Amino acid sequence: MSEPAVVLLSGGLDSATVAALAARGGFDIHALSFRYGQRHALELDAAAKVAAHVGAVEHRIVDIDLRSFGGSALTGDIPVPKGRSVDALADIPVTYVPARNTIFLSFALAFAEVLGSSDVFIGVNALDYSGYPDCRPEFLAAFEVMARLATKAGVEGTQHLRILAPLVDMTKADIIRTARGVGVDFAMTLSCYDPAADGGACGSCDACQLRARGFTEAGIADPTRYAAGTP
Questions:
Q1: pLDDT average, residue stretch 139-163
Q2: At what angle do helices 172-181 and 13-24 cross, to 10 degrees?
């Protein structure tokens, strides 16, 4: 019998790759996405397609309202940065959503406890990324320790939670190569922070530029629909 696993699924390239890796690993995937007040819901459409593609047992979309706090270009009235050099992404940009991965992992922890699962997959990356502090290995290790202290299942020893982040030390090119190897349909995924209403990627936000460069470095054709004049 396959073990259940919670997979945080945003609809982006990284989370789709992690979902495919979890499926390849024989887990029963319980996909978890969030309608958290982000600037567009197109990523949830992408997440639903990916969940179906990897054969998820279920796909839950949970409503939380991070727009109540704002503080990010993704949840407030702050413009998404465009045209920044991807080689100069040293600062933490305004697309960082305060405590987002901490919040998402807390929901995943609760879901995993109810499922009787010890495995939570997340598609964070600490190499080709925008500098978010909650994408780093030390954050994941600290959350894992906290989680084992925070739940009934953890205290009683029936759950030994693992935060599985198989992409954390990969370049974007390596992620794309890995994704192709496990059958990810790139066209299903959406990475853009500020897409058009029809789902076309802006081509100039940090996420678009990192994605485009990754495909170029991987030597794999990029099926993303970008706005005219962008990668």
A1: 90
A2: 40
CA–CA separation, 145 and 152 (whole Å): 14
Q: What is the mean pLDDT of the chain?
A: 91
Whole-model pTM above 0.70?
A: yes
| Residues whose CB is less than 8 angstroms from the CB of residue 26 and which lie 6 or more positions away in sequence, other chains included | 2, 3
Task: Enumerate domains of the chain plus CATH numbers.
Answer: 4-186 (3.40.50.620)
pLDDT at position 93: 85
Cα separation, 139 vs 71, in Å, equals: 21
Mean pLDDT over 87-103 rounds to 83
d(CA 29, CA 221): 28
φ, ψ at 68 (rounded to 5°): -60, -30
Task: State the amino acid at position 69 in one-letter form.
Answer: F
- Cα–Cα dist 214/224, whole Å: 12
d(CA 194, CA 10): 15
Q: By the 8 A CB rule, do 81 and 95 touch?
A: yes
DSSP H helical segments within the chain, as ranges?
13-24, 42-53, 100-115, 137-150, 152-156, 172-181, 206-218
